[in-house]
Amino acid sequence: MLVAALAVTGCVEATTEKPAEKDSVPPPVPVSAFAASNNSKIQDFLAVVRRMEPVARRECRRRAITAKCNFTILIDNRKKQPANAFQALDDKDQPVIVFTRALIQETRNQDELAFVLGHEVAHHILEHISKTRDSALEGFLVGGLQAAVKGGDAKAIERAEQRSAFIGIRKYSKQYELEADALGTVITAHSGYNPLRGAQYFHRIPDPGDKYLGSHPPNAKRLQVVRQAVSKL
Protein backbone atom coordinates (compact mmCIF):
# COMPACT_ATOMS: atom_id res chain seq x y z
CA MET A 1 0.00 0.00 0.00
CA LEU A 2 2.77 2.42 0.86
CA VAL A 3 4.57 1.60 -2.38
CA ALA A 4 1.41 2.51 -4.28
CA ALA A 5 1.72 6.05 -2.93
CA LEU A 6 5.03 6.54 -4.73
CA ALA A 7 3.39 7.22 -8.11
CA VAL A 8 0.64 9.68 -8.90
CA THR A 9 -1.47 8.84 -11.94
CA GLY A 10 -2.22 11.62 -14.32
CA CYS A 11 -5.16 12.73 -16.40
CA VAL A 12 -6.68 9.31 -16.93
CA GLU A 13 -7.26 6.46 -14.55
CA ALA A 14 -4.86 3.65 -15.33
CA THR A 15 -6.36 0.26 -16.01
CA THR A 16 -5.07 -2.69 -14.04
CA GLU A 17 -3.41 -5.44 -16.02
CA LYS A 18 -1.66 -8.60 -14.95
CA PRO A 19 1.97 -7.58 -14.31
CA ALA A 20 4.57 -9.08 -16.58
CA GLU A 21 7.63 -10.88 -15.29
CA LYS A 22 10.07 -8.31 -13.99
CA ASP A 23 12.86 -9.14 -16.41
CA SER A 24 10.52 -8.99 -19.42
CA VAL A 25 9.28 -5.42 -18.86
CA PRO A 26 11.36 -2.93 -20.88
CA PRO A 27 12.02 0.36 -19.09
CA PRO A 28 10.56 3.61 -20.42
CA VAL A 29 12.78 5.30 -23.01
CA PRO A 30 14.14 8.88 -22.81
CA VAL A 31 12.45 11.23 -25.27
CA SER A 32 15.83 11.94 -26.90
CA ALA A 33 15.84 8.38 -28.27
CA PHE A 34 12.89 9.29 -30.52
CA ALA A 35 14.55 12.27 -32.22
CA ALA A 36 14.67 10.46 -35.58
CA SER A 37 11.12 9.07 -35.37
CA ASN A 38 8.93 9.66 -38.42
CA ASN A 39 5.77 9.46 -36.28
CA SER A 40 4.12 12.90 -36.35
CA LYS A 41 2.55 12.50 -32.89
CA ILE A 42 5.91 11.59 -31.38
CA GLN A 43 7.45 14.63 -33.04
CA ASP A 44 4.65 16.79 -31.63
CA PHE A 45 5.44 15.45 -28.18
CA LEU A 46 9.15 16.16 -28.59
CA ALA A 47 8.32 19.73 -29.64
CA VAL A 48 6.12 20.18 -26.56
CA VAL A 49 8.83 18.81 -24.26
CA ARG A 50 11.48 21.13 -25.73
CA ARG A 51 9.28 24.17 -25.20
CA MET A 52 7.89 23.26 -21.79
CA GLU A 53 10.95 21.85 -20.01
CA PRO A 54 12.59 25.23 -19.25
CA VAL A 55 9.24 26.71 -18.18
CA ALA A 56 8.55 23.74 -15.91
CA ARG A 57 12.01 23.96 -14.36
CA ARG A 58 11.66 27.70 -13.76
CA GLU A 59 8.19 27.33 -12.26
CA CYS A 60 9.42 24.47 -10.06
CA ARG A 61 12.31 26.49 -8.67
CA ARG A 62 10.07 29.47 -8.07
CA ARG A 63 7.31 27.58 -6.22
CA ALA A 64 8.75 24.39 -4.75
CA ILE A 65 9.95 24.19 -1.17
CA THR A 66 12.72 21.81 -2.21
CA ALA A 67 14.21 22.70 -5.58
CA LYS A 68 14.49 19.23 -7.08
CA CYS A 69 13.55 20.33 -10.54
CA ASN A 70 15.60 18.29 -13.02
CA PHE A 71 12.73 16.67 -14.89
CA THR A 72 13.33 13.40 -16.75
CA ILE A 73 10.64 12.74 -19.35
CA LEU A 74 10.25 9.20 -20.68
CA ILE A 75 8.02 7.33 -23.11
CA ASP A 76 6.64 3.88 -22.30
CA ASN A 77 6.86 2.47 -25.82
CA ARG A 78 4.96 -0.77 -25.17
CA LYS A 79 2.06 -1.05 -27.60
CA LYS A 80 -0.42 -2.74 -25.24
CA GLN A 81 -0.14 -0.19 -22.44
CA PRO A 82 -3.30 1.92 -21.99
CA ALA A 83 -3.29 5.69 -22.47
CA ASN A 84 -1.81 7.16 -19.30
CA ALA A 85 0.76 9.57 -17.90
CA PHE A 86 2.17 9.64 -14.40
CA GLN A 87 4.80 11.29 -12.27
CA ALA A 88 7.23 9.48 -9.99
CA LEU A 89 10.56 10.09 -8.27
CA ASP A 90 13.92 8.53 -9.03
CA ASP A 91 16.34 7.32 -6.36
CA LYS A 92 17.59 10.90 -5.89
CA ASP A 93 14.04 12.26 -5.49
CA GLN A 94 14.25 13.98 -8.87
CA PRO A 95 10.99 14.06 -10.88
CA VAL A 96 10.32 11.49 -13.58
CA ILE A 97 7.34 11.86 -15.91
CA VAL A 98 6.24 8.96 -18.10
CA PHE A 99 3.83 9.09 -21.05
CA THR A 100 2.59 5.89 -22.62
CA ARG A 101 2.75 5.75 -26.39
CA ALA A 102 -1.03 5.22 -26.46
CA LEU A 103 -1.67 8.55 -24.76
CA ILE A 104 0.59 10.39 -27.19
CA GLN A 105 -1.19 8.79 -30.14
CA GLU A 106 -4.61 9.54 -28.64
CA THR A 107 -4.12 13.30 -28.35
CA ARG A 108 -5.31 15.54 -31.18
CA ASN A 109 -2.91 18.46 -30.93
CA GLN A 110 0.09 19.86 -29.10
CA ASP A 111 -2.14 21.78 -26.68
CA GLU A 112 -3.51 18.51 -25.30
CA LEU A 113 -0.02 17.07 -24.92
CA ALA A 114 1.11 20.28 -23.21
CA PHE A 115 -1.82 20.26 -20.81
CA VAL A 116 -1.14 16.68 -19.69
CA LEU A 117 2.56 17.42 -19.28
CA GLY A 118 1.79 20.59 -17.32
CA HIS A 119 -0.53 18.59 -15.06
CA GLU A 120 2.18 16.03 -14.26
CA VAL A 121 4.78 18.75 -13.69
CA ALA A 122 2.34 20.38 -11.25
CA HIS A 123 2.02 17.16 -9.25
CA HIS A 124 5.75 17.33 -8.54
CA ILE A 125 5.86 21.05 -7.77
CA LEU A 126 2.98 20.65 -5.32
CA GLU A 127 4.76 17.68 -3.69
CA HIS A 128 1.78 15.38 -4.04
CA ILE A 129 3.82 12.18 -3.86
CA SER A 130 5.33 13.00 -0.47
CA LYS A 131 1.99 14.26 0.86
CA THR A 132 0.25 11.08 -0.30
CA ARG A 133 2.99 8.94 1.22
CA ASP A 134 2.66 10.72 4.56
CA SER A 135 -1.13 10.32 4.50
CA ALA A 136 -0.79 6.61 3.70
CA LEU A 137 1.72 6.09 6.51
CA GLU A 138 -0.52 7.90 8.99
CA GLY A 139 -3.47 5.72 7.99
CA PHE A 140 -1.33 2.58 8.20
CA LEU A 141 -0.17 3.36 11.74
CA VAL A 142 -3.52 4.55 13.06
CA GLY A 143 -5.41 1.62 11.52
CA GLY A 144 -3.02 -0.92 13.00
CA LEU A 145 -3.08 0.72 16.42
CA GLN A 146 -6.87 0.79 16.52
CA ALA A 147 -7.08 -2.87 15.55
CA ALA A 148 -4.53 -3.77 18.21
CA VAL A 149 -6.40 -1.83 20.90
CA LYS A 150 -9.56 -3.73 20.00
CA GLY A 151 -7.72 -7.00 20.56
CA GLY A 152 -7.30 -8.02 16.93
CA ASP A 153 -4.90 -10.79 16.04
CA ALA A 154 -1.97 -10.35 13.63
CA LYS A 155 -4.12 -10.89 10.52
CA ALA A 156 -6.79 -8.46 11.70
CA ILE A 157 -4.15 -5.84 12.42
CA GLU A 158 -2.59 -6.35 8.98
CA ARG A 159 -5.97 -6.00 7.26
CA ALA A 160 -6.68 -2.81 9.23
CA GLU A 161 -3.26 -1.40 8.32
CA GLN A 162 -3.79 -2.07 4.61
CA ARG A 163 -7.33 -0.73 4.58
CA SER A 164 -6.38 2.44 6.44
CA ALA A 165 -3.30 2.99 4.25
CA PHE A 166 -5.51 2.77 1.16
CA ILE A 167 -7.91 5.32 2.65
CA GLY A 168 -4.91 7.53 3.38
CA ILE A 169 -3.77 7.30 -0.24
CA ARG A 170 -7.19 8.20 -1.59
CA LYS A 171 -8.14 10.75 1.09
CA TYR A 172 -6.85 13.76 -0.82
CA SER A 173 -6.46 12.20 -4.28
CA LYS A 174 -9.27 14.14 -5.96
CA GLN A 175 -8.14 17.39 -4.36
CA TYR A 176 -4.59 16.82 -5.62
CA GLU A 177 -5.83 16.18 -9.16
CA LEU A 178 -7.72 19.48 -9.15
CA GLU A 179 -4.71 21.32 -7.72
CA ALA A 180 -2.53 19.86 -10.48
CA ASP A 181 -5.11 20.87 -13.10
CA ALA A 182 -5.05 24.47 -11.84
CA LEU A 183 -1.26 24.84 -11.70
CA GLY A 184 -0.88 22.78 -14.87
CA THR A 185 -3.12 25.29 -16.63
CA VAL A 186 -0.74 28.10 -15.63
CA ILE A 187 2.36 26.16 -16.76
CA THR A 188 0.69 25.27 -20.06
CA ALA A 189 -0.24 28.90 -20.73
CA HIS A 190 3.21 30.20 -19.75
CA SER A 191 4.68 27.76 -22.28
CA GLY A 192 2.65 29.33 -25.07
CA TYR A 193 -0.05 26.69 -25.38
CA ASN A 194 -3.82 26.99 -24.99
CA PRO A 195 -4.93 25.17 -21.81
CA LEU A 196 -8.62 25.44 -22.70
CA ARG A 197 -7.96 23.68 -25.98
CA GLY A 198 -5.70 21.22 -24.20
CA ALA A 199 -8.34 20.38 -21.60
CA GLN A 200 -10.72 19.27 -24.35
CA TYR A 201 -9.00 15.93 -23.86
CA PHE A 202 -11.31 15.43 -20.88
CA HIS A 203 -14.28 15.19 -23.25
CA ARG A 204 -12.88 11.97 -24.72
CA ILE A 205 -11.82 10.01 -21.66
CA PRO A 206 -14.13 7.99 -19.37
CA ASP A 207 -15.76 10.08 -16.68
CA PRO A 208 -14.91 8.56 -13.26
CA GLY A 209 -17.87 10.31 -11.64
CA ASP A 210 -17.70 11.31 -8.00
CA LYS A 211 -16.98 7.94 -6.40
CA TYR A 212 -16.25 7.59 -2.71
CA LEU A 213 -12.48 7.21 -2.37
CA GLY A 214 -12.13 7.49 -6.14
CA SER A 215 -8.72 8.48 -7.49
CA HIS A 216 -9.99 11.21 -9.85
CA PRO A 217 -12.75 13.84 -9.69
CA PRO A 218 -15.51 14.14 -12.32
CA ASN A 219 -14.33 15.47 -15.68
CA ALA A 220 -16.82 18.37 -15.49
CA LYS A 221 -15.24 19.53 -12.23
CA ARG A 222 -11.79 19.39 -13.75
CA LEU A 223 -12.89 21.45 -16.74
CA GLN A 224 -14.42 23.99 -14.38
CA VAL A 225 -11.12 24.31 -12.50
CA VAL A 226 -9.25 24.85 -15.77
CA ARG A 227 -11.65 27.60 -16.84
CA GLN A 228 -11.30 29.28 -13.43
CA ALA A 229 -7.50 29.15 -13.65
CA VAL A 230 -7.54 30.62 -17.16
CA SER A 231 -9.82 33.46 -16.02
CA LYS A 232 -7.16 34.47 -13.46
CA LEU A 233 -4.32 34.62 -15.99
UniProtKB/TrEMBL annotation:
Its cofactor is Zn(2+). Signal peptide: none annotated. Binds 1 zinc ion per subunit. One of its GO terms (cellular component) is membrane. One of its GO terms (biological process) is proteolysis involved in protein catabolic process. The keyword Phosphoprotein does not apply. Transmembrane segments: none annotated. Pfam families: Peptidase_M48. The keyword Zinc applies. Keywords: Hydrolase, Metal-binding, Metalloprotease, Protease, Zinc. Residues 71-228 form the Peptidase M48 domain. One of its GO terms (molecular function) is metalloendopeptidase activity. InterPro entries: Mito/Outer_Membr_Metalloprot, Peptidase_M48. Belongs to the peptidase M48 family. PANTHER family: METALLOENDOPEPTIDASE OMA1, METALLOENDOPEPTIDASE OMA1, MITOCHONDRIAL. This is Peptidase M48. It comes from Profundibacter amoris. The lineage of its organism: Bacteria, Pseudomonadati, Pseudomonadota, Alphaproteobacteria, Rhodobacterales.
